[in-house]
Design brief:
elongated, OB fold (Dihydrolipoamide Acetyltransferase, E2P), 28% strand, 473 residues, 29 strands, 4 domains, alpha+beta, disordered N terminus, 4-stranded antiparallel β-sheet
């Protein structure tokens, strides 16, 4: 019950203490207000709205950073709080999200029109929805912003179980009112809809954080799929399982389309945050760079690996064998692709890696292309177009090569060559890669790839043109 009494306690505390309370700390940046409780900050119009309209008691702590989201078909800057989602509209106004309506949908009880009719004693009737608001709820609604802040009533009063106890509640478009007689006869608190809606979204993905996971703190975000985490006092580099983000930091490669955006999104989700680390028995504990291979869960129940794919900042990536959440990750990528999110948007990358790349591969010119080059030739990084197919992994010990079709058209690998440059040998590949497909090709008997020395890989098409380059780091 502590969370429900927290707003009342905080009102008293904030009245007694100065604005420099230890609960809320101001950052060095004058436009930011940061909270040690969640490691997140508010700034700009959202901070101004939060401070002007009730602060902690009304909105709770921020539980995400400000970011761009699609809200009812529009891209808006939003930030989630324990009790609300604040949205910056195109005209600069800040409004509350329609979380009451969304929460009812999540519970499988979407709002229905009420009986309508004249208002009873101490009540107000709303013809738009057919519901009435009465007593303490009506007084609170009128005194704290009314229609603009809370919206129309979507239900009448009813009893709901919250944290194991029954409470009288009523849903509005933007909020849930709760009557707490244990505090006072007319004590109205606002429900934790921001946290509940986000948690339900995570559950809807089919992902639930396991119990008893090791806990760490992210101290550095390397790029979109790699972070440094302090675990039991030791910093470990962690590679996120099941995803691949466009390159943004390798000095030997050009920055790929949406690479910087993917790194920025990972920073937004993870930097400084407490995370829960989940291993996967189907995968190695560490990769060949000695990075831990893990799924990272946030305190609000979301898995970052999944979020990056679902929001269009990462590709689904299967290395060698299927992993625990492969089906959910593939479904998330399919949705992101279908809805044109992030790197799948025609306005950004359209699923391509190379900036400015066309959505489909250019057919070879009549009469063929350049003559095949020797597998021992090393073209070096930064030369290959990395489209329509990209080398995403080479496991030299397992003697496997993983390729991904990053175009929107099937690619026939007949006549293509996958070269081990140090040995000047070919690794067998073939077949047709569907759009977006990732496939791992096993090697033949014997060794092709050098395990003791650097051995880059190069992929050439049937006309001998360099398509992709893998720098052995």
């Amino acid at each position: 019950m502590y969370r429900r009494f927290a707003p009342v306690i905080l009102i008293v505390a904030l009245t007694m203490l100065s604005a420099a309370s230890c609960t809320v700390a101001l950052s060095a940046q004058s436009n930011q207000r940061c909270f040690a409780e969640t490691g997140l900050c508010i700034s700009g119009p959202i901070r101004a709205y939060w401070e002007r309209n009730g602060e902690l008691a009304v909105f709770g702590f921020p539980i995400t950073a400000q970011s761009e989201e699609s809200v009812e078909g529009r891209s808006l800057q939003v930030q989630w709080f324990e009790r609300d989602r604040l949205e910056i509209q195109p005209d600069g106004r800040v409004t509350a999200g329609r979380l009451g309506a969304e929460r009812l949908e999540q519970l499988g009880t979407p709002w229905q029109p009420g009986a309508g009719g004249p208002a009873g004693p101490g009540c107000a009737s709303f013809a738009e929805t057919g519901h009435q608001v009465c007593g303490a709820f009506l007084r609170y609604w009128r005194a704290n912003g009314g229609l603009e802040r809370f919206g129309l009533p979507l239900t009448g009063e009813f009893t709901a179980e919250l944290e194991g106890r029954p409470f009288t509640v009523q849903y509005f478009e933007r909020r849930r009112f709760e009557l707490h007689p244990e505090i006072g006869p007319d004590a109205v608190l606002l429900g934790l809809l921001g946290r509940e809606v986000l948690q339900m979204r995570g559950m809807a993905s089919g992902l639930t954080r396991p119990e008893g996971l090791p806990v760490g703190q992210v101290v550095n975000v390397v790029d979109g799929d790699t972070v440094d985490v302090r675990i039991n006092g030791q910093v470990e580099r962690v590679r996120l399982i099941g995803i691949d983000t466009p390159e943004s930091v390798d000095p030997r490669q050009t920055v790929e389309c949406f690479g910087r955006e993917a790194a920025a999104k990972a920073t937004e989700l993870l930097n400084g945050r407490t995370v829960f680390l989940e291993a996967d028995g189907s995968q190695a504990d560490r990769d060949r760079f000695d990075r831990l291979l893990r799924y990272l869960w946030l305190e609000d129940g979301r898995m970052v690996n999944y979020e990056l794919i679902d929001q269009g900042y990462a590709f689904e990536y299967t290395f060698a064998v299927p992993y625990r959440y492969q089906a959910q990750f593939k479904a998330a990528e399919a949705r992101a692709r279908a809805e044109g999110r992030g790197l799948w948007s025609p306005a950004t990358c359209n699923g391509q890696r190379s900036p400015g790349a066309t959505p489909t591969p250019t057919p070879p010119p009549l009469g063929g292309g350049p003559a095949p080059v020797s597998c021992a030739s090393d073209p070096g990084p930064g030369v290959a177009p990395e489209t329509p197919v990209r080398i995403v992994a080479i496991d030299k010990r397992a003697e496997t090569v993983t390729l991904r079709n990053v175009s929107n058209a099937p690619v026939d690998l007949s006549g293509w060559r996958m070269c081990s440059i140090r040995g000047g040998q070919e690794h067998p590949i073939g077949g047709v890669l569907a759009p977006g497909e990732t496939r791992t090709f096993p090697g033949p008997e014997g060794n092709i790839w050098s395990n003791s020395e650097r051995d880059p890989g190069a992929l050439y098409d049937a006309q001998g043109r360099l398509v992709s380059y893998w720098a052995d780091r």
